[in-house]
Backbone:
């Protein structure tokens, strides 16, 4: 799992690459926690994300809550999109 | 080194003895004849002297009155000469010794030979005085002692033996000495002649005896022995000897007869040996065929590896053929195993074994249970067993579907239960077949769980003996019986035994057979089965297995996701210390089973109402996802275990 983080003032972009599973979720959680407090808007770039388990999904929800809803998810593959749909995320998240 | 000829040394010895005998005879006869001749010459000399005395007395004239011209002197001289001639003396002489003046005055000297006589008359005429010492001997004779010793003198008159005698006058006074000489040569010749005469017959007799002995021993002892020795030296049982037949007598004849008898016996023996060797080679060829037939019936090595069970067997006879046997065959749904040991070894045991095995197999094939098969076999053996042989047998009928082994024991060795708790089973001992009509062997059963097995063997295993006469024994056998799925107990035991006996020859037939129930294996579709610790990292292994098995695809990732959710769920909430994961493909289905011994938990039972999205960060999505991803999901609680089964079907075939 590779996590890239770009912070631009209040804007932050996190790119996820690989498998976000039970093992790598804590890593993602730590990255989220380390975001500066002045970041109010987060974009998750999932172009390289191959796999996400419920542990990863939980962190997505956590990020959504932390940004007070200002979470945008971009470049989602159909596979991941379907998972989001299964989990009922498609209705709550801003998926582009 | 060549032995010295006994014959030659005996001949040499005999010649030596002959020579010594002749020498001794010559010496002894020479001594004897020397004395005889000496004394006879003494006698003759005395006779001469007596005659001269008689003549002198007859003339009756004083010696002082004698002169050359007197008749008395001439008569005496003449007659003395005649006496000398007659009695063989060389000289007779008359003289008067003068001891004080050291001289002898000769009256006359006569000789038997006329020439000598003439010479003597010339040299020693009447009254010749010879200046010389008068010898003691002469003095002794003068003093009246008798001359007993012959005297040898060598003077210009030749070599002579001399005797001296006194000449008495009428009054008996010694007036002169009479000397009588005998020619030494004559006497010596006489002695030599006598000795020769005495020795030659002896020599001839001895020589004749010796020659007779020589020819006799040569012809009757040495020549036969030499011929016999030559016969022995060139002895060839294949060839008739073309030597002259030996003409022998007595002991030698006995020897030659013994030799002929012995050589006949050897010839006969060789013929018999050849015949025996031929028969043996035939027997060995026949045994070889027998061995091959037997190994067709009882192969030295057998390995049957089926999905649910494994059979491994080994059998080796101590001789070409043996009395140990084993058999394995399938009939209906059962697998039959038989192992037995016939009393004795070799061909008889092999034949009895062959008969026994065939009967047992036939009975089992016709559906008889092991005990019944053995009891029936026993009856037949009892009826057809003139040699009173017997056989111990262990027969079993195994159901691979259930792991149930029904077995019967006819006096055979105790089988070993191959399990984590390996031990000797204690079946009903039963009684060996072929002994008593009422064998009453009974069936017993045991269940082999997966990973368990049973080992049956002949007593050649426990009775194997090493260099220090130690038995391999039951304890070592049990110790070396390995029971794991990957180990072949038969081969391990076999190697352990051969290490144990080292270079000793295998004494008894040795047979081992193992029946092992395999654990659940890949062949029922299982491609992964493992107990994992309830840790996040442990799931990686399942992930890798699934990717390897299914290939990386969207479907695979969904299956992995469902499995991860299930695994993590169990690991996090059940409190179990291990999770048994089993993955198998069955037709179009992928079945993944999770077993744990944690607290009872049915994930399919929805206790709480649906959660809000906002609460999803606390979890709770996992089961949902599984339900959506898996084609089928089921949960049972069994044996204090939670068993969760996920089934995935191909999406297309599902529709």
Residues:
């Amino acid at each position: 799992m590779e996590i890239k983080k770009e912070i631009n003032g209040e804007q932050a972009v996190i790119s996820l690459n690989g498998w976000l599973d039970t093992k790598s979720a804590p890593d993602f959680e730590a990255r989220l926690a380390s975001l500066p407090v002045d970041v109010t808007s987060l974009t998750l770039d999932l172009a390289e994300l191959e796999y996400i388990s419920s542990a990863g999904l939980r962190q997505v929800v956590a990020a959504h809550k932390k940004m007070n809803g200002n979470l945008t998810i971009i470049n989602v593959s159909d596979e991941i999109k379907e998972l989001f749909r299964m989990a009922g995320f498609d209705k709550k998240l801003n998926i582009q | 080194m060549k032995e010295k000829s006994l014959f030659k040394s005996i001949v040499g010895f005999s010649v030596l003895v002959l020579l010594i005998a002749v020498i001794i005879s010559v010496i002894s006869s020479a001594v004897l004849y020397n004395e005889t001749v000496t004394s006879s010459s003494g006698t003759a000399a005395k006779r001469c002297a007596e005659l001269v005395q008689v003549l002198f007395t007859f003339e009756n004239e004083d010696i002082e009155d004698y002169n050359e011209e007197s008749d008395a002197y001439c008569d005496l001289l003449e007659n003395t000469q005649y006496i000398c001639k007659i009695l063989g003396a060389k000289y007779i002489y008359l003289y008067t010794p003068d001891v004080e003046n050291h001289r002898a005055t000769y009256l006359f000297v006569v000789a038997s030979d006329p020439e000598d006589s003439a010479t003597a008359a010339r040299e020693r005429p009447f009254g010749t005085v010879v200046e010389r010492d008068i010898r003691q001997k002469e003095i002794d004779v003068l003093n009246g002692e008798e001359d007993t010793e012959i005297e040898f003198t060598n003077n210009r008159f030749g070599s002579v033996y001399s005797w001296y005698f006194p000449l008495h006058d009428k009054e008996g006074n010694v007036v002169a000495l009479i000397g009588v000489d005998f020619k030494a040569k004559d006497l010596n010749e006489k002695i030599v002649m006598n000795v020769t005469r005495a020795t030659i017959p002896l020599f001839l007799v001895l020589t004749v005896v010796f020659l007779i002995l020589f020819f006799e021993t040569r012809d009757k002892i040495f020549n036969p022995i030499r011929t016999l020795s030559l016969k022995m030296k060139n002895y060839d049982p294949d060839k008739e000897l073309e030597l002259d037949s030996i003409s022998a007598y007595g002991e030698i004849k006995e020897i030659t007869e013994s030799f002929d008898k012995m050589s006949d016996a050897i010839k006969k023996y060789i013929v018999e040996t050849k015949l025996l060797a031929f028969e043996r080679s035939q027997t060995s060829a026949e045994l070889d065929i027998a061995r091959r037939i037997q190994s067709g019936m009882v192969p030295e090595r057998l390995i049957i590896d089926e999905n649910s069970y494994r059979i491994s067997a080994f059998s080796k006879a101590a001789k070409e053929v043996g009395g140990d046997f084993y058999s394995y065959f399938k009939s209906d749904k059962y697998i039959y195993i038989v192992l037995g040991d016939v009393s004795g070894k070799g061909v008889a045991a092999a034949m009895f074994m062959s008969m026994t095995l065939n009967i047992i197999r036939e009975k089992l094939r016709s559906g008889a249970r092991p005990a019944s098969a053995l009891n029936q076999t026993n009856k037949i053996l009892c009826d057809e067993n003139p040699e009173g042989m017997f056989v111990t047998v262990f027969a079993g009928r195994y159901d691979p579907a259930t792991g149930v082994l029904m077995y019967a024991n006819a006096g055979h060795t105790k089988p070993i239960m191959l399990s984590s708790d390996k031990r000797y089973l204690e079946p009903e001992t039963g009684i060996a077949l072929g002994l008593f009509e009422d064998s009453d062997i009974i069936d017993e059963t045991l269940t082999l769980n997966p990973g368990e097995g049973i080992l049956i063997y002949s007593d050649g295993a426990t009775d194997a003996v090493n260099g220090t006469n130690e038995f391999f024994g039951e304890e070592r056998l049990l110790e070396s019986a390995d029971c794991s799925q990957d180990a072949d107990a038969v081969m391990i035991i076999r190697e352990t035994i051969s290490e144990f006996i080292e270079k000793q020859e295998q004494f008894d037939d040795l047979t081992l057979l193992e029946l092992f129930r395999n654990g659940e294996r890949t062949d029922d579709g299982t491609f992964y089965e493992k107990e994992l610790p309830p840790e996040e990292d442990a799931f990686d292994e399942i992930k890798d297995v699934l990717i390897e098995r299914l290939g990386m695809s969207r479907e695979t990732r969904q299956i992995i996701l469902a499995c991860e959710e299930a695994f993590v769920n169990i690991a996090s909430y059940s409190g179990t210390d291990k999770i048994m994961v089993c993955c198998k493909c069955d037709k179009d289905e992928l079945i993944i089973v999770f077993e744990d011994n944690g607290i009872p938990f049915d994930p399919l039972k929805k206790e709480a109402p649906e959660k809000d999205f906002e609460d999803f960060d606390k979890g709770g999505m996992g089961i949902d996802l599984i339900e959506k991803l898996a084609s089928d999901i089921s949960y049972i609680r069994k044996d204090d275990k939670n068993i969760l089964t996920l089934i995935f079907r191909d999406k297309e075939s599902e529709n």
